[in-house]
Amino acid sequence: MNILMLSFEHPYDPKSGLGVHLNRLISNLNPHINITVFTPSGRLFSYAQFEDFIADANFTMVQHVLSCNERFDLIHAHDDMTAPAAHYLKERLGLPLAATIHGLESKRKKACNEAPHPYRQQTERLLIESADELIVLSTFMKRALDQAARKKVTVIPSPASMEEEKGKIPRSMNRRFLFSFGRFVPEKGFSQLLKVFAILRRRQPDLHLVLAGEGPSLSSYEKLAASLNLKERVIFLPFLHRRDIREFLSQCEMAVFPSFYEPFGLAAQESMEQGVLTAVSQSGGFCDYAVHEKTAVTVDFTRAQEAADLLDRLLKDREKAHRIKESGRQQVIKLHNPRLITESYLQLYKRVINNSTIH
User: Fold this and answer.
1) Cβ partners under 8 Å of residue 22, min gap 6
2) Where is the Glycosyltransferase subfamily 4-like N-terminal domain (predicted)?
3) Rounded to 5 degrees, what are φ and ψ at 318?
4) Residue 134 forms beta bridges with which residues?
5) What letters, b where the CB count within 10 A reaches 16 and e where it falls short, cover 224-238?
6) Long-range Cβ contact pairs of 22-27 (< 8 A, separation 24 or more)
7) DSSP calls for 18-62
């Protein structure tokens, strides 16, 4: 089986959860099938319109595919920005199309009280309508797609990393801290986390907050931290590679993910798999594996005082925290076992190919 995979992010140079997901997925599938990943060119240009950027990137992917002279059995597109290339290649090559919807633009922007980009809504609709089968990573996303699409939607979560540490990780922090990482964008909820932490540190004055990532909201977070008198207590770090993330996870008191919109929650999954006490917001893809005070802590971060009280109690109750950490680790390893997820993808690919009327 030969799979043509389309993505805006390269799996071997991940910059977000999408890239990490692809890296793990491809690593697990490669022993069983052939996968060729096509991404836009690494060249950077300045575009007057967002539509021009999407058009150029998709044109580049189409060129790469048509010039490779390889025969494929199926196209697997990731996210709506690959929709123009996926739709064109499906028709041009006569191949069935599976599409993973990693998030919905309309829902993401609604969570931040922003208007969705009209062109993103068009590409989203194009990919949904063009796909022979849709894949999502959580039941939260399935419910959203069931309303938006009248076709089969299959839930296959992102596989756990199942990585073993290569020797002991050296300590680089000599202080107690909460840790969070991800893109610095409004829907990730870091602004609300800063407000919660401002209250929490009054109870635990030796506690720090480490935020790692990159994105357009960084400067606003730095200004908010300063206005809350947290400049000496909050540490902003750039995008971290996976080993560095595991290092900080191994040292933190708790990992915290306060997203307003989270289709799956790969960062929380990684934290729980490492056996770290993990706090997440109460909605989104977290709900599939984060059960309050059993496998994780679910928090309403919009209620800053209540959230701070809850985190304070858990940080002080070491016995309860230990039970939650161990149960969370087992939950992720059980539900997101790479062997089971690999088998689910192999079955889905075979089904889509066999059911295709154009292949």
Assistant:
1) 5, 7, 9, 11, 14, 37, 78
2) 17-159
3) -65, -35
4) 99, 153
5) bbeebebeebbebee
6) 22/78, 24/158, 24/159, 24/160, 24/161, 24/338, 25/158, 25/159, 25/341, 25/345
7) HHHHHHHHHHHHTTTSEEEEE---S-----SSHHHHHHHHHHHHH
Reduced to 3 states, what is the DSSP secondary structure of residue 186? helix
Report pLDDT digits (tens) over 63-111: 999 998 899 999 999 999 999 999 999 999 999 999 999 998 888 888 8
Residue 206 tokens, joined: 């030796």
pLDDT for res 166: 44
DSSP output for 286-317: GGGT--BTTTBEEE-TTSHHHHHHHHHHHHH-
**Four-way CATH pick for 2-159+337-355: 2.70.20.10, 3.40.50.2000, 3.40.640.10, 2.40.50.140:** 3.40.50.2000
Q: Which residue type sits at 276?
A: V
Dist. CA 135–CA 242, nearest whole Å = 25
CATH label, 176-335, candidates 3.40.1440.10, 3.40.50.2000, 2.40.37.10, 3.20.20.60: 3.40.50.2000
Q: Does the pLDDT value for residue 53 go beyond 50? A: yes
Instruction: Supply angle C-alpha 333, 315, 306, rounded to 5.
Output: 100
2-159+337-355 and 176-335 agree in CATH topology: yes
The CA radius of gyration of the chain, in Å to the nearest whole number, is: 21
Q: Where are the domains of the chain?
A: 2-159+337-355, 176-335
Q: What is the DSSP letter of 63?
A: H
In the numeric block, which tokens belong to residue 78? 């990731």
* Cα distances (Å, whole numbers) of residue 281 to 125, 257, 308: 28, 7, 13
Does this model's pTM top 0.85? My answer is: yes
Question: What is the pLDDT, as a whole number, of residue 76?
Answer: 98
Fill in the DSSP letter of residue 167. Answer: S
Tokens of 217: 């909201």
Q: Distances from the Cα of 261 to the Cαs of 109, 128, 268, 281, 307, in angstroms?
A: 9, 20, 13, 9, 18
Are residues 244 and 217 in contact, defined by beta-carbon separation less than 8 angstroms? no
Measured distance CA(271)–CA(328) in Å, rounded: 9
